User: Fold this.
Amino acid sequence: MKPRISLITLAVADLERSLVFYRDGLGLPTDGIVGREFEHGAVAFFDLAGGLKLALWAQDNLAHDTGLEKQPISSTAFALAHNVEHRQEVGAIMAAAERAGAAIVKAAQDTFYGGYAGYFKDPDGHLWEIAWNPHMLPG
Amino acid sequence: MKPRISLITLAVADLERSLVFYRDGLGLPTDGIVGREFEHGAVAFFDLAGGLKLALWAQDNLAHDTGLEKQPISSTAFALAHNVEHRQEVGAIMAAAERAGAAIVKAAQDTFYGGYAGYFKDPDGHLWEIAWNPHMLPG
Assistant:
């Protein structure tokens, strides 16, 4: 297949709560919850750089749509990394996330690869890394 | 923060097995495993459209780096969607994933929003959707 991820869907327990976290807390752009006309369709999309979209969808609906049983969110299953251009941006974003209700997993600090990064968890436990990586600066 | 995800890291049990799945099975471009000079650094990166990168990293190393305890992968925690331009591409990619060892979660079929899509799980249980969505065609 072509090397492309179009959409990252995060399964959430409470769509309104997660919308507030990502829209108001992290400042990501969205038209809010759409798709309510479908029984299992209510979703919030966020337009990200490069044409990528982030979606928030109730875990109940993801389980329904896939036919899979719900399993607890694992905070060590994956991480979404937001890389920044300048080292000093890391602390500011970590602080904003904490104010928005994120759980700080690891305060910003030097990394083994020569960068500077911190981790937090969103309200459902999904893991984010905010990183200044001199080998992987944003384009 | 700016609306950007730089890197999606998938935690895996067996880095070599996952490399083979994504590189040889799905055909994603990579330089293979790098970072072996760091005790917890061995990682495989894949360059995707729009500047996004996918990374495979041992779950043990993600747990070590975050200080979190390992928790089982949940197949209903998130989904990565690969959208295609033409409906008939869905079946071909699902078949390639199955040949590569993916577990088919839901065979390709019409979706509630007027598209056509299927789901599979990678060797660790990470969920992928291959979708033709007339409202969200690849750019």
User: Anything to note?
Assistant: Chain B has two domains: 7-66, 79-132. The beta strands of chain B are 7-12, 30-34, 43-47, 53-58, 78-83, 103-110, 116-121, 127-132. Chain B is about 20% helix and 35% strand.
